[in-house]
Automatic annotation (TrEMBL):
Gene3D superfamilies referenced in this protein's UniProt entry, alphabetically: 3.30.70.100
Protein species of origin: Lederbergia wuyishanensis
Superkingdom, natural source: Bacteria
InterPro entries the UniProt entry points to: Dimeric_a/b-barrel (IPR011008), YdhR (IPR014910)
UniProt cross-references to SUPFAM superfamilies, sorted A to Z: Dimeric alpha+beta barrel
Protein name in the entry: Monooxygenase
Length: 100
């Protein structure tokens, strides 16, 4: 069963195209994480928030990732990270065209 990891945090920027350019190496490194399937990057410039929705193969790999990622974000000056892990209801998700 796959698991969704929802992450958000306060961030002053960059956003949009500048974010894409600044974080391209980070994006590439995320694809190499154990159990990683995909990520949707999220941003809200007005609220100064960013984060993502991730899909991992197991709950354990999602937990391992958020532990590492929280430390990495702290190194970027982002001390508070909100993270939740959810199991996926595959049958209902397939009915609504989820990319799983």
């Amino acid at each position: 069963m796959a698991y969704v990891l929802q992450v958000d945090f306060k961030m002053d920027g960059p956003f949009g195209n500048e974010m894409a350019e600044a974080f391209s190496d980070l994006a590439k490194s995320i694809t190499e994480e154990e159990g990683f399937i995909w990520k949707i990057w999220t941003e809200n410039q007005n609220e100064k928030e960013a984060g993502g929705i991730y899909l991992f193969k197991t709950k354990e790999t999602a937990e391992k990732y958020i532990e590492m990622h929280s430390k990495r974000l702290a190194g970027f000056g982002i001390p508070e990270v909100n993270a939740k892990i959810f199991a996926i209801n595959s049958k209902l998700s397939e009915m609504t065209n989820a990319p799983i």
